[in-house]
Amino acid sequence: MPKPQGFCIFCGGPGLDHEHVIANWTARYLKKNIPEHGKLSLQIDNPGLLGRETVASTIKKIDGDPRSRRVRRVCKKCNRGWMRDWQNLAKPIAERIIQGHAVTLSASDQKVLSMWVLMTVIVSEWSDPEYQAVPEGDRRFMWSMQSPPAHWKIFLGLHPEGVKDPYLHHESAAFPNGSGDNDALNTQATSYTVGNLYVHAVSSTIPAVVDGFKINLWGCPRLVQLWPIINAPQGWPPLVSLSRNDAERIAWAMYDYIGEVNRRNGAAP
Known about the structure:
- By secondary structure, the chain is α+β, with helices and mostly antiparallel strands.
- The chain contains 7 helices and 11 strands.
- About 4% of the residues have low confidence.
Protein backbone atom coordinates (compact mmCIF):
# COMPACT_ATOMS: atom_id res chain seq x y z
CA MET A 1 0.00 0.00 0.00
CA PRO A 2 1.55 3.36 -1.01
CA LYS A 3 2.37 5.89 1.67
CA PRO A 4 -0.01 8.85 1.91
CA GLN A 5 1.06 12.10 0.26
CA GLY A 6 3.25 14.20 2.56
CA PHE A 7 3.18 17.98 2.60
CA CYS A 8 5.80 20.58 3.46
CA ILE A 9 5.76 21.81 7.06
CA PHE A 10 6.49 25.35 5.83
CA CYS A 11 4.49 26.08 2.66
CA GLY A 12 2.13 23.10 2.71
CA GLY A 13 3.17 22.02 -0.79
CA PRO A 14 3.90 18.47 -2.07
CA GLY A 15 7.15 16.99 -3.35
CA LEU A 16 9.11 16.37 -0.16
CA ASP A 17 12.90 16.43 0.02
CA HIS A 18 15.35 15.17 2.64
CA GLU A 19 16.74 17.88 4.94
CA HIS A 20 19.53 17.53 7.52
CA VAL A 21 18.59 18.33 11.11
CA ILE A 22 21.80 20.35 11.40
CA ALA A 23 22.96 22.01 8.16
CA ASN A 24 25.30 19.74 6.22
CA TRP A 25 27.98 22.44 5.89
CA THR A 26 28.50 22.41 9.67
CA ALA A 27 29.74 18.78 9.56
CA ARG A 28 33.38 19.89 9.83
CA TYR A 29 32.60 21.42 13.26
CA LEU A 30 30.62 18.45 14.61
CA LYS A 31 32.30 15.66 16.49
CA LYS A 32 30.11 12.61 15.94
CA ASN A 33 30.36 11.17 19.43
CA ILE A 34 26.79 11.17 20.76
CA PRO A 35 25.72 7.49 21.07
CA GLU A 36 22.15 8.43 22.00
CA HIS A 37 19.98 11.45 22.72
CA GLY A 38 16.70 12.17 24.43
CA LYS A 39 13.47 14.05 23.93
CA LEU A 40 11.72 15.44 27.00
CA SER A 41 7.99 16.14 27.03
CA LEU A 42 6.38 18.08 29.89
CA GLN A 43 2.73 18.46 30.84
CA ILE A 44 1.34 21.20 33.06
CA ASP A 45 -2.37 21.31 33.90
CA ASN A 46 -4.59 24.16 35.03
CA PRO A 47 -4.06 24.91 38.73
CA GLY A 48 -6.80 23.64 40.99
CA LEU A 49 -7.77 20.55 38.98
CA LEU A 50 -8.25 17.87 41.62
CA GLY A 51 -7.10 14.33 41.07
CA ARG A 52 -4.68 15.22 38.29
CA GLU A 53 -0.92 15.30 38.39
CA THR A 54 0.17 18.83 37.63
CA VAL A 55 3.28 17.83 35.73
CA ALA A 56 3.93 14.61 33.91
CA SER A 57 7.24 14.21 32.13
CA THR A 58 8.28 11.67 29.54
CA ILE A 59 11.82 11.12 28.31
CA LYS A 60 12.40 9.12 25.14
CA LYS A 61 15.92 7.82 24.48
CA ILE A 62 16.91 7.49 20.84
CA ASP A 63 20.01 5.77 19.46
CA GLY A 64 22.45 7.75 17.37
CA ASP A 65 23.66 11.30 16.99
CA PRO A 66 20.64 13.56 16.37
CA ARG A 67 22.67 16.05 14.35
CA SER A 68 23.44 13.52 11.59
CA ARG A 69 19.77 12.68 11.01
CA ARG A 70 17.72 13.74 8.00
CA VAL A 71 13.98 14.25 7.87
CA ARG A 72 11.58 14.21 4.92
CA ARG A 73 9.25 17.03 5.92
CA VAL A 74 10.30 19.91 3.64
CA CYS A 75 9.44 20.24 -0.05
CA LYS A 76 12.13 20.60 -2.71
CA LYS A 77 10.93 24.10 -3.59
CA CYS A 78 11.51 25.35 -0.02
CA ASN A 79 14.61 23.28 0.69
CA ARG A 80 16.37 24.28 -2.53
CA GLY A 81 14.94 27.78 -2.63
CA TRP A 82 14.50 30.20 0.25
CA MET A 83 15.94 27.81 2.87
CA ARG A 84 19.12 27.34 0.86
CA ASP A 85 19.34 31.11 0.33
CA TRP A 86 19.23 31.76 4.10
CA GLN A 87 21.78 28.98 4.72
CA ASN A 88 24.14 30.57 2.20
CA LEU A 89 23.74 33.96 3.87
CA ALA A 90 24.28 32.49 7.34
CA LYS A 91 27.30 30.32 6.54
CA PRO A 92 30.08 32.96 6.41
CA ILE A 93 28.76 34.68 9.56
CA ALA A 94 28.08 31.48 11.48
CA GLU A 95 31.43 29.91 10.63
CA ARG A 96 33.30 32.77 12.30
CA ILE A 97 31.27 32.62 15.51
CA ILE A 98 31.37 28.79 15.50
CA GLN A 99 35.16 29.08 15.47
CA GLY A 100 35.04 31.64 18.30
CA HIS A 101 36.39 34.59 16.27
CA ALA A 102 35.56 38.16 17.24
CA VAL A 103 32.94 39.72 14.97
CA THR A 104 30.47 42.57 15.01
CA LEU A 105 26.91 41.46 14.21
CA SER A 106 24.73 44.00 12.44
CA ALA A 107 20.93 43.90 12.68
CA SER A 108 20.92 42.15 9.30
CA ASP A 109 23.47 39.57 10.54
CA GLN A 110 21.34 38.84 13.59
CA LYS A 111 18.22 38.27 11.48
CA VAL A 112 20.15 35.95 9.16
CA LEU A 113 21.49 33.91 12.08
CA SER A 114 18.03 33.82 13.67
CA MET A 115 16.53 32.37 10.48
CA TRP A 116 19.31 29.77 10.44
CA VAL A 117 18.57 28.83 14.07
CA LEU A 118 14.80 28.62 13.45
CA MET A 119 15.25 26.29 10.50
CA THR A 120 17.43 24.04 12.68
CA VAL A 121 15.00 24.01 15.62
CA ILE A 122 11.90 23.42 13.50
CA VAL A 123 13.40 20.67 11.34
CA SER A 124 14.95 18.93 14.37
CA GLU A 125 11.53 18.78 16.06
CA TRP A 126 10.16 16.78 13.13
CA SER A 127 12.78 14.08 13.61
CA ASP A 128 10.43 12.96 16.41
CA PRO A 129 6.97 14.38 15.60
CA GLU A 130 5.36 13.23 18.85
CA TYR A 131 7.47 15.87 20.65
CA GLN A 132 6.79 18.61 18.09
CA ALA A 133 5.49 21.85 19.62
CA VAL A 134 6.12 24.70 17.13
CA PRO A 135 2.69 25.51 15.63
CA GLU A 136 1.88 25.63 11.95
CA GLY A 137 1.29 29.39 12.24
CA ASP A 138 4.93 30.01 13.18
CA ARG A 139 6.21 27.93 10.26
CA ARG A 140 3.88 29.64 7.76
CA PHE A 141 4.88 33.07 9.10
CA MET A 142 8.56 32.25 8.67
CA TRP A 143 7.95 31.05 5.08
CA SER A 144 5.62 33.86 3.98
CA MET A 145 7.27 36.79 5.80
CA GLN A 146 10.86 35.51 5.59
CA SER A 147 11.39 36.54 9.19
CA PRO A 148 11.40 34.89 12.62
CA PRO A 149 8.17 35.44 14.60
CA ALA A 150 8.54 38.23 17.14
CA HIS A 151 7.50 36.02 20.07
CA TRP A 152 10.52 33.70 19.77
CA LYS A 153 13.60 34.27 21.93
CA ILE A 154 16.98 33.15 20.66
CA PHE A 155 20.25 33.33 22.60
CA LEU A 156 23.85 32.52 21.71
CA GLY A 157 26.73 31.66 24.00
CA LEU A 158 30.40 30.83 23.61
CA HIS A 159 30.87 27.24 24.77
CA PRO A 160 34.40 25.91 24.08
CA GLU A 161 33.59 22.59 25.77
CA GLY A 162 30.95 22.01 23.11
CA VAL A 163 33.72 21.15 20.63
CA LYS A 164 34.60 17.94 22.45
CA ASP A 165 31.27 17.38 24.25
CA PRO A 166 28.48 18.33 21.80
CA TYR A 167 24.78 17.73 22.29
CA LEU A 168 21.22 18.59 21.32
CA HIS A 169 18.58 18.97 24.04
CA HIS A 170 14.87 19.52 23.31
CA GLU A 171 12.02 20.11 25.75
CA SER A 172 8.37 20.47 24.74
CA ALA A 173 5.55 21.37 27.10
CA ALA A 174 1.77 21.67 27.21
CA PHE A 175 0.66 24.82 28.99
CA PRO A 176 -3.05 25.60 29.58
CA ASN A 177 -4.21 27.93 26.83
CA GLY A 178 -7.79 28.56 27.91
CA SER A 179 -9.27 26.41 25.14
CA GLY A 180 -9.68 23.32 27.29
CA ASP A 181 -7.11 21.37 25.27
CA ASN A 182 -4.48 20.95 27.96
CA ASP A 183 -2.70 18.01 26.31
CA ALA A 184 -1.46 19.76 23.17
CA LEU A 185 2.23 20.65 23.14
CA ASN A 186 2.52 24.40 22.59
CA THR A 187 5.88 25.41 24.09
CA GLN A 188 9.44 24.33 23.31
CA ALA A 189 13.00 25.02 24.36
CA THR A 190 15.91 23.74 22.27
CA SER A 191 19.62 23.90 23.05
CA TYR A 192 22.38 22.62 20.78
CA THR A 193 26.06 23.14 20.08
CA VAL A 194 28.03 23.56 16.87
CA GLY A 195 31.74 23.90 17.52
CA ASN A 196 32.25 26.73 20.02
CA LEU A 197 28.69 27.99 19.55
CA TYR A 198 25.88 27.34 22.02
CA VAL A 199 22.32 28.04 20.84
CA HIS A 200 19.21 28.30 23.01
CA ALA A 201 15.79 29.00 21.44
CA VAL A 202 12.42 29.29 23.21
CA SER A 203 8.93 29.68 21.76
CA SER A 204 5.31 29.30 22.83
CA THR A 205 1.83 29.97 21.50
CA ILE A 206 1.22 31.70 24.83
CA PRO A 207 3.22 34.98 24.93
CA ALA A 208 3.07 35.17 28.72
CA VAL A 209 5.01 31.91 28.96
CA VAL A 210 7.99 33.25 27.03
CA ASP A 211 7.78 36.62 28.79
CA GLY A 212 7.72 34.97 32.22
CA PHE A 213 10.32 32.34 31.44
CA LYS A 214 13.51 33.62 33.03
CA ILE A 215 16.98 32.12 33.17
CA ASN A 216 19.24 33.54 35.83
CA LEU A 217 21.98 33.95 33.23
CA TRP A 218 19.84 36.11 30.95
CA GLY A 219 21.01 39.68 31.12
CA CYS A 220 24.48 38.52 32.18
CA PRO A 221 27.54 38.58 29.90
CA ARG A 222 27.39 34.82 29.25
CA LEU A 223 24.55 35.00 26.71
CA VAL A 224 23.81 37.30 23.78
CA GLN A 225 20.18 37.80 22.77
CA LEU A 226 20.02 37.27 19.03
CA TRP A 227 16.24 37.62 18.56
CA PRO A 228 14.31 39.82 19.01
CA ILE A 229 17.16 42.19 18.24
CA ILE A 230 17.96 44.43 21.19
CA ASN A 231 21.51 45.57 20.34
CA ALA A 232 22.74 46.46 16.87
CA PRO A 233 25.56 46.29 16.23
CA GLN A 234 26.25 43.44 18.67
CA GLY A 235 29.77 42.42 19.60
CA TRP A 236 30.84 38.78 19.66
CA PRO A 237 32.00 36.78 21.56
CA PRO A 238 30.43 37.37 25.00
CA LEU A 239 32.72 38.54 27.77
CA VAL A 240 32.40 35.21 29.62
CA SER A 241 32.30 31.70 28.17
CA LEU A 242 29.72 29.13 29.23
CA SER A 243 30.91 26.29 31.42
CA ARG A 244 29.42 22.81 31.14
CA ASN A 245 27.25 23.53 34.18
CA ASP A 246 26.03 26.78 32.61
CA ALA A 247 25.09 24.97 29.40
CA GLU A 248 23.20 22.25 31.25
CA ARG A 249 21.45 24.76 33.47
CA ILE A 250 20.14 26.68 30.46
CA ALA A 251 19.11 23.53 28.61
CA TRP A 252 17.00 22.33 31.56
CA ALA A 253 15.61 25.78 32.37
CA MET A 254 12.16 25.01 30.94
CA TYR A 255 11.77 22.08 33.33
CA ASP A 256 12.89 24.27 36.23
CA TYR A 257 10.48 26.99 35.17
CA ILE A 258 7.53 24.59 35.21
CA GLY A 259 8.56 23.51 38.70
CA GLU A 260 8.41 27.17 39.77
CA VAL A 261 4.94 27.53 38.23
CA ASN A 262 3.77 24.48 40.16
CA ARG A 263 5.11 25.80 43.44
CA ARG A 264 3.29 29.09 42.88
CA ASN A 265 0.15 27.06 42.16
CA GLY A 266 0.62 25.15 45.41
CA ALA A 267 1.27 21.85 43.66
CA ALA A 268 4.23 19.51 43.86
CA PRO A 269 6.52 19.69 40.77
